[in-house]
Amino acid sequence: MKKIYTLLFALLAVTQVALAQSGSVKGRVLGADTGEPLTGATVLLEGTTKGASTNAAGEFSIMDVPAGTYNLRISYVGYNFPRQPITVTSGGTTDIGTVTMNMTNMVGEEIVVTASRRPEKLTEAPAAISVISSRDLTELPSFNVGELLNKVQGVEVVRSGVAGIGINARGFNNAFNVKMFQLTDGRNSMLPGGTGLPAGLYNTVIKEDIERMEVILGPSSALYGPNAHNGIINTITKDPRRYPGTTVTLGAGNQNVLTARARHAGVINSKFAYKVNAEYTEGKDFEFIDTVYNATLGALPEYDVDFNFNFKRANAAVYYTPRQNMDIILDYGIGQGSNIGVTNNGRNQINGWTFQYLHGRIVTPRIFAQVYNTWNDAGDTYQINARTTNYHTLRALGQSQEVAHEKSKTGAPAGSLYPGSPAIAFPGFIDKSHRLNGEVQYNNSYAGFDVITGLSFQRDVAYSRQTYLDDRNGNIILNQYGAVAQIERSLGDRVRAVVGARLDRHDNYGTQFSPKAALTLNALAGTFRATYGRAYAAPSIQFQEFYLNNGALAILGSGAGLTIQNTETGATREIPKLEPERVQTLELGYKGTPTDKFYVDLSTWYSMSQDFISPLTGITPIMGKEKVIRKGSEDVTEAASNALNYYLTYLNYGNVNSWGTDLGLNYYLSNNFSIGAKYSYFNSDITDRDNLDNDANGDGKVTPAESSLNAPKHRYNFNFTARDLFNNKFFGSVNVRILPEYDFFSGSQVASRENREQRVAPLLYNYGPLGGFTSVDLSAGYRFTQMITLGASVSNLFDAEQREFVGSPVIGRLYSVELRFDFGGKKNKNDVR
Fold this sequence. Notes:
Radius of gyration: 27 Å
Distance between the termini: 45 Å
Mean pLDDT: 89
Largest sheet: 22 strands, antiparallel, barrel
């Protein structure tokens, strides 16, 4: 690792050599509709990493520009501006004067930063990337931002309740899905510690503070490190200098939903700005009582399930500008929620789960550096199935309803209820994990090459007191180090090449290498791209160190490997140590506007996975003659013993290949109306049940659970959007989603055509496959004044039987109404706060 850092620092030193012959560019940007300055517009010089953002007066300045001729590009949401050729002279300043941008509703003009870690036009990014804009968010009258991801090409959205939404891409979903890496302002916003799950309801960002969400599909480990192998969602929040003022939103809906959100941002002077945000939302989920199976007591309905949910979140940030083109930003956020969470083994009653972070950043045109800490606290969370078993066990032991109700949740030591009484296990979780991250990134242009280099560090500290992790010997601590370099170069006027690589060092898995390469061609008013990327997914701490024994079955992590013994013959077999999954992906795509009103986004890809990581999988037959006796070299015969002799873990397959196509079309009927269609196809050779390479648990056969895509092969989406009607006051949309049936297996959870409406022990009850519905969503809004906007939405308009996830209710019709107030600051219809 020392050699890696030495080489990287040498590269940093070389790239900092300034070009002697340089000049600067300055100007001012206004909106044609209002004549007001456009604050925060992005100004770029094509073919370079040189750029700037406009200030409150609409002014910008780009320094240290090598002498030469460039195309100047300006981008601002809801506006467009034609390329403007400029010439920069050595030692001089090129003043473009005051320019005006015209309004547009066309997709593709947005500037994105996530694909290449630098600003670039959406249609020219060397990746499958989509953007949800601030305006899209404002025109969604709902607290649930995840609903908009239904409209993003290639994204698989699964709804587990009124508030619960899961995100996946390119198949192989599961009940504990960590395949989509989520960032907020470049900060890792996944939960720390054992689970590594998305923060979901406990995240700290309110809808009104989101400027945009950038969604990238495909491997991104070369820039973002381990576990960025299926895709990335980067939520970018609003800068208080660009979006000052106060916004208050009040909303209500069926299922007892009430929501209140507020954002306030201000500019103190030329050096200081700030923002504060807060939200409280509550409601009641659709009722659904699942079945708990116990080896002694049989089938039991879940006990004392609380269907109410609530979450509250708040964050604050201070922006300090010590000099031009340099920001120091400090922000803190906290989110807390209570709801029902689906797991591989049943469901959890989550009570007061708390997620916090403290984040510091330094941002300049050349340097980005950040350090942050993230904390977890599981609150009073417990397993519903374990508590249900406890309750009925206590009642069978002659305890009163009151005692059984209390002790089923707290547990009871052996002999505490009466002399000789059995122990009642604690069904809850303790999770007080935390994570420390640090990163520095440097970019520059040298001899026609745009160079990005960076270093990163991550330290995970998992703390569960053996409630779900094998941390009996103290906290589990994992360190990861990374070094990245990327080089871009224009090859003529229309072709651009990108190459990059990342080295990561993991305490448990050593050094991993993640290269990438891309070639883009500007043609047909868009960009064709060919990309190659290699990514790897390090098994999460939970996958490595899971420890959960409910008496009927045991779930064990396979980070050290497992040994299984036949109780009759004494023969043993080995489950190998879990290894990182490595994914190589080839992708071809086009994104552009071949005509003035027609937008096309096409991606087709092929992925090759080595050591593919399975969902939670059974490794012994139920009530069989096998049991796990060792984890690595440690004897776990007694600790893992259970009534059914049934053990589950995570496994590596051999090689799994998958492929797919995503197609998005948008046609703009006028400046006010547009129609769109999206289609996604996905498939894999994992479905071949005759191929014993797909026999993950080594029992000599390929089961439906081992060969399931856990995603539909085909998905369809159609939409119609109206904007700026009736004197720019009305907006609305219609969205139609068609989701065919598909099978889903994850641990004890099953939803399949085979054995439909039956229970095959030890799996949970099979209610049949997921999907198989067409859902229609409507939304509309009216701006009464610059201050007041009223919006309403209906999801699942025709109340289709919408079953999207295991362990979850059928989702019925949902409707909501929101009233939004905007105070202070200059605002036009596209500058939505």
